[in-house]
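#dry-run=false #mode=assembly
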Amino acid sequence: MNLQSETDAIQIKNLSVTYVAVAEVPVTERSKMRKTTKKHNIRALNNVSFTVKTGEIVGLIGGNGAGKSTLLKTMVGVLKPSSGQIDMWGQPHLLAPGMGFNRKLSGRENIILGGLAAGMTLEEVRNKQQSIVDFADIGGFIDLPTTTYSSGMFGRLAFAVATHVDPDILLIDEALSAGDAGFRDKAVAKVREMCDKAKTILVVSHSTALVGEMATSAVWLHRGEVKQQGLVGDVTESYVKFLADENETAQMDRLTPFLQSQHPQDQPQPEA
Amino acid sequence: MVSSDSRYATPVVSRRTTKTGVPPVREYLAQAFRYRTFAYYWSRADIKARNFETVLGRIWLTLNPFLFGLIYFVFVAILSGGGLGSSDRLAFIVGNLYAWGFFSATVITTVSSVQSGAGGILGQSAVPRIVLPVASTITAAHLFVRSLGAYIPLHLIASRGLHIEMLWMPLLILLTGLLGLGFGLFLAVINVYVRDVSRLLPHMMRLWLYLSPAIWVYTRVSTDSNLDTYARQNPMYSSLTAWTMAFGGPLVEGGRGMAIHVLVFGLWAIGTLTVGFLFFISREDEFAIRN
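#status=ok
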C-alpha cells in the first residue's frame, strides 16, 4: 500500500475502466432480414490520475459521457478498475437518494432500510430517524406505503435519508434535483451542511455555476481523460470556452468511428 | 477492500484490479459482515412486501408446500397403479418437498436478487453484492421454518414418531441453505450474461426434482449398482436421503448411516458455495453494467 502523504484523502493513479456494451446495428437494407449486434469495449476512463487533499472540495466537470459518474462508481466499488488504482483515506459514500428503498414498505420502514444500505449502523439510524422524518416533512404519509407517495414526496424522503449520513469522503453525482421546488433550498442547505462535516468532497454537476460556488478546485474530464485540473475558476473558464467551440454530441459519441467503418452508407452525408 | 494503518485515524479503502478478478477475500468478507444488519432487514422487508405477514399470507405459506405434496402424492399413486397408499407415503412426499422447496426457493431467489436493480443498490452503493443473495437465503430459510408447522399434524397422523435422526435437522437446514446459495450464486452470474437462464431455471429445477429422491424413495435405486452410482452423483441425493431419514423415513438395512449422508451433503454444500462465491465476487461489477 502506497501511503504517500498524510494529507491526501484520495489518490487516483493511472486509472482506466473499460466495460463491454452491446450495440444494435439497425437494418436499413431490405435484403437483410435480421438485426446485427456488436460488442464494444467502452473505455470509460483512460489513464486518469489526480490527487485530492483532505478537506478539499473538488468539482468534476465534463460533458455527457466524459466518465464522471464512472469515476465515482469506481470509487464507491460499483465498478472495478481495468488497470491503475484508487486509494482513499476514509470510507467513500455516494449520495444516492432512494437507494435501498422498497416501495411496498412505509416511509418509516424505508428510513431504516435506506440508512442501513448507506452504511449507517442500526443505532445511528434509530437516533436520526426523527430528524429524518422532520426534514422530509411529509406529515402522516410517513407511516403509509411509499407506493402512495407522489414523486415529490418520495424524493423528499429519499433525500432526507441520504443526507443524514456522516461520511469521510462524500461523492455527489447530480443529486441536488430532489423533491419539489419548495424543497430545493432546504436540500441545497442540507448538502452544504454535509460538506461542512465531511472531510473530503467530490461533486459532479453539469452546472459550472454550482461547482464554482461549492468547490475549491476542479478536474475536467473529456472522453475519459483528464483534460485539465487546477483552481476551479481556471478550469470552469476553460470548460465553458470549450463548450462554446465544440459540439457536445461529438464530444460524447465514441462509437461513431466504429459505426462509420461498419456501415459507411448509413452515416449522414455532409450538406451540399 | 479495507486495510487499517495505525498512523491514520480512518481506515484506507483501495480499488485495484487483480489478475483473476477475485478481490482479497478476507477484506471482502469483512466488508460484507459490516452489512449483516442490512441483510437481515432486507430479508424482513422482502417477506413483508410479499404479504407473508398478513393472515392469508401466513395461511398460504403453510398450505402451499402441503398442496404441492398432495398433488405429487396423487400423481405417484396414479403412476404406480397401486392405489393412494398410506399416510406414511403422503408424509414422506410432503416432508421431502418441503426440503426441496427450501432449496429451490433459495436458488431461484438468489438468481433474481441480482437481476433487478435491487433498490438502486447494484448501481449506486458500496454494499458488497453477496449481501443480497445472503438476504434471499435468510428469507427462504425463515419461510421454510415457519411453514414446517403444517407438516407436524401429518407426521402425527402417519405415526412416524420421534427419531434420533431428527436432531440433525438444524444442520440439514444450514447445509440446504448453503447448497442452494452456492448454486444460486453461480447461476446468478450466468444469468447476467445469458438472461434466458432465469426462464429456463424453473424447468431445470423441476427436472432436477424428478431425478432426486424427493417423490421416490432412495431405496428404489440402492439395489441396482449402476443406478445407485449414477444417483449418487446428484448433489441432492445425499441431501434428500438425509432429509428422508430426518423426517423418519426408511433406513436401508446395513446401508449407509445418517452421518455418512450428512458428510457427503456437507462436502457438496461447502464445495458448491466456495466455487459459487468466488465466481460471483469475481464478476460482481458486471451486475451494474448489464442490469
